[in-house]
Amino acid sequence: MLVFVSLLSGFLISFLGGLPLGNLNVTAVRITLADGVGKAYQFSLGVVLIEMLYMFFCMQGVAMAHQYAAAFMTLRWLMVFLLLIMAAGCFMPLLKKGREGTSPNQPKNNGKTKIAAGFVLGLALSAINVLQIPYWTGWITIAMQNSWVGKGYTAWIFILAAGWGTFTCLTIFIVVGKKLSSWLMRNKKAQDLVFGIVFLTVALAQLYLIVKP
User: Fold this and answer.
1) Pair 67, 123: CB distance under 8 Å
2) What is the pLDDT of residue 79?
3) For residue 132, what pLDDT band results from cuts at 50, 70 and 90?
4) What's phi and psi for 114, nearest 5 deg?
5) Residue 110, pLDDT score
6) By C-alpha distance, which of 80, 41, 62 is closest to 170?
7) By CB atoms within 10 Å of each CB, which of 2, 62, 84, 212 scores lowest?
8) Residue ranges per domain, the chain?
9) Higher-confidence position of 105 and 183
10) CA-to-CA dists, residue 198 to 1, 134, 202, angstroms
C-alpha cells in the first residue's frame, strides 16, 4: 500500500506542479515548433534528470532534519509559509483590473527561428530553476509527515514517480503544443483561482496539523 501511495503522490505532485505555464513547459512547446518532437523529448529528459537529482538531495536534507524535532518543525512551518506565498501569488493577479490577455510567456514562433534545443538545454534550464528546491523540500516534508514516503526503496519510488509526472506533463505540452498553451493562457484566471485554492487549502491543513493538541 505504501508503494502505491508513494507512486501516486510523487506523480501527482510533479504533474500538477508542471501544468501552470512556466519557462520549462513553454520552452518545450517552442522546441517542438522549431526543432521537432525528438529534440523536445531530449529536452524533457534533461529537465527530468536534474529535477530528480535535486529531489534526491532534498530528500536527504529532510530525512536528516526529520531526526531532530526542532529542525523538522521548522521545515513544517516553512512549508506553510511557502504555500501561503504561492496561494497569494495566484490570487493577486485576480485582484488586478484590466489584466492583459496575452503574456510574454506565451510561445511565439514564426517558423524561421531555430532554438538551440536538446538534452543539454534541458539540463541547463532545469539546473537554474532553483525554485524547485524549496518546492520539493516542502512537499517531501509533507510526504514524510503523512507517511506517503518511508525509508529505503519508497523514497526512490517517490523520486522516480515525480520524474515520470514531470515527463508526462511535458509530453502533453509537446503533443498538444501551441493549442494547449493558448488554451491555458485564455483561461489563466480560472487556473490561478484553482491553484490558489489548492495551495491555500493545503497550507491551512498543514497549519491545523501543526497546532492541533
Assistant:
1) no
2) 73
3) confident
4) -95, 140
5) 45
6) 41
7) 212
8) 2-211
9) 183
10) 25, 18, 6
Residue 55, all three cell numbers: 529531489
Task: Label each residue of the chain as H, E or C.
Answer: CHHHHHHHHHHHHHHHHCCCCCHHHHHHHHHHHHHCHHHHHHHHHHHHHHHHHHHHHHHHHHHHHHCCHHHHHHHHHHHHHHHHHHHHHHHHHHHCCCCCCCCCCCCCCCCCCCCCCCHHHHHHHHHCCCCHHHHHHHHHHHHHHCCCCCCCHHHHHHHHHHHHHHHHHHHHHHHHCHHHHHHHHHCHHHHHHHHHHHHHHHHHHHHHHHHCC
Contact present, 58 and 132 (Cβ < 8 Å)? no
Cα–Cα distance between 205 and 213 in angstroms, integer?
Answer: 14
Q: Dig out the grid coordinates for 9 from the structure.
A: 503522490
For residue 23, the model assigns a pLDDT of 81
Q: How far apart are CA 77 and CA 144, in angstroms?
A: 14
**How far apart (Å, rounded) are the C-alpha atoms in residues 167 and 58?**
20
Number of CB atoms found within 10 A of residue 51's CB: 26
Residue entry with cell 534528470: 49
Question: Higher pLDDT residue, 69 or 200?
Answer: 200
- Using alpha carbons, list the distances in angstroms from residue 161 to 85, 158, 191: 26, 5, 24
